[in-house]
């Protein structure tokens, strides 16, 4: 990733860095892209600042890439970043942050669930000295009860077990100062749970509440399975509580086992109650077997993570970048 950073950050073709970069990951978002561009442009122009829109195409299979090409050719403020395939939102965000040049960077979703109209407020907080401005959802529209309830529980559990305070009900929508973005760049882990990393870097942080509208168009890219995956990723990236839980329950079960054995010995020798107990034996085997498999599974999750980190594969690959209408193929990493 660093050679690539050097290549593109060497300043070639870059005159003055904009004050603000808005980074948006896009995966099959052709339905919202025109609306997003229009609303962002309207808000940003009214602010009288220099800005760039870093739109990252995360290997979309629909018309998103073509639309982005057209946009980048017609609007000099658009920096279009094309990843070589679908790497997932966390990777797309990382790519966008790496390619951004602004003094402040705002990260938001493409589907207008993060309203661009809030940007002036975020800029104000940044100008007043905040390095990180978190946008906290007061309410969420258009999301099922199950999704809201599971999100609620997830954030509470995550916070209880992780070493850093990961703000509840805060998505990826936030503003980061250049210093904060540079700090994030130092985090080299491959499996990137961005919400956690944003919190992990610290820096003076301000929170702004807003009501989250429903998706403007198109469908959510997440199904329950991938959300559960993300939740697990979040917890295992920021905590070893599951390992500790395995240790503690192992300890308790072992203790129970010893007591039970003592009881059996006493029962057999003192009370003279010989062979019996197929039910107790089979239930013990089942409980212990289950607990062991669970603990091994949890261990495996962490070993798997280590395995992926150890490979040190790049988090993403960029196919090409169009900046100020100028395409640049990725030729070296
Ligand atoms: N996204 C992405 N890559 C993916 C999946 C999603 O870049 O593999 C982007 C998507 O285009 C959107 C953002 O991540 O800009 C959030 O996705 P979505 O709105 O589907 O998630 P939800 O709001 O339902 O959690
Ligand atoms: Mg969304």
Share in β-strands: 15-25%
CATH architecture verdict of the domain at 20-156 and 169-222 and 317-323: Alpha-Beta Complex
| Category by helix and strand content | alpha/beta
Give me the count of strands.
Answer: 9
CATH homologous superfamily label of the domain at 20-156 and 169-222 and 317-323 = Spore Coat Polysaccharide Biosynthesis Protein SpsA, Chain A
Keywords: Cell membrane, Glycosyltransferase, Membrane, Transferase, Transmembrane, Transmembrane helix
Membrane topology: Multi-pass membrane protein
Family: Belongs to the glycosyltransferase 2 family. GtrB subfamily.
GO cellular component, one term: plasma membrane
List keywords for this structure.
18% strand, single chain, 333 residues, 11 helices, nine-stranded mixed sheet, disordered N terminus, binds uridine-5'-diphosphate, binds magnesium ion, alpha/beta, Spore Coat Polysaccharide Biosynthesis Protein SpsA, Chain A
Characterise the protein shown here.
This protein has a domain at 20-156 and 169-222 and 317-323: Spore Coat Polysaccharide Biosynthesis Protein SpsA, Chain A (Alpha-Beta Complex). It has helices spanning 2-9, 33-46, 64-74, 89-99, 119-127, 145-161, 178-185, 194-200, 224-238, 241-269, 278-311, and strands at residues 20-26, 51-57, 78-83, 104-107, 132-140, 170-177, 205-212, 318-323, 326-329. Residues 1-13 have low confidence and may be disordered. Helix 6 packs parallel to helix 9 (224-238) and helix 10 (241-269) runs antiparallel to helix 11 (278-311). With 333 residues, the chain is an alpha/beta fold. Residues 25-27, 29, 58, 86, 88-89, 92, 109-111, 113, 215, 220-222 line the site of uridine-5'-diphosphate.
